[in-house]
Amino acid sequence: MLRLVLLLSFGFLSSFESYAQELSALDIVKKMDDQAYGGYVSSHVKMTIIRPKWTRTMEMKSWSIGNDYSIIRIISPAREKGISYLKREREMWNYQPSIDRTIKLPASMMSQSWMGSDFKNDDLVRQSSIVNDYTHSFSDDQKADPDHYVIVSIPDPDAPVVWGKVKMWIDKENLIQTKVMFFDEDEDLVQTIQSSKVKKIGSRYVATHMELVPADEVGKKTIMEYLELDFKTKHEPAFFSIQQLKRLR
Fold first, then answer.
1. Bridge-partner residues for 195, per DSSP?
2. Exposure winner among 11, 56, 109, 168, fewest CB in 10 A?
3. Does the domain at residues 10-247 carry the CATH identifier 3.60.20.10?
């Protein structure tokens, strides 16, 4: 889902604009995705779920290697502490500490709400791949927005995806994904994510604040804020195991 979108190194950016016009929509999506999810990433995230009559906050830690391996573990509030999610390539599991049970998540659950938020399970565990499962093209809207690449992504036949169409605004200067619109199979808008509060962490620039707003549900939204990010700590693929779900703190 949805998870952060990162900036290319300055040296690469200096040469990027010189050949940007030669890049295809797929090339740009690949580069954006590599910066967002490539390599080793550890994070501490705060999620705020806002409803017309109540607001709920939770915090989580996550560890990942690219798009293939990830663990997300809830650390607060206390009643949900320890609930964890594991992804290994195309397979996902959920650990519930209250019953000490791990279940494998079927593909049919990817479109369901993640922990009662406006994000879907697929947004967080990223079963589908925006690079591999979609065909990309430039939108005519790009003519009215010279600062962004506006790219429309349509799922490939039989791809294991939640969305019928995704439309992305990617900042030309640094390849940060600033806005994403998600549509259903009938091309009706379902939700929009806006990213902001760009910060430099190490050698990377990161959009640390994301707001997801459902299209037809007034007063509802979910905010994700990155409190900590680490791109240096390395974990081997063996770290991402069902056993590890019970060990992490």
1. 210
2. 11
3. no
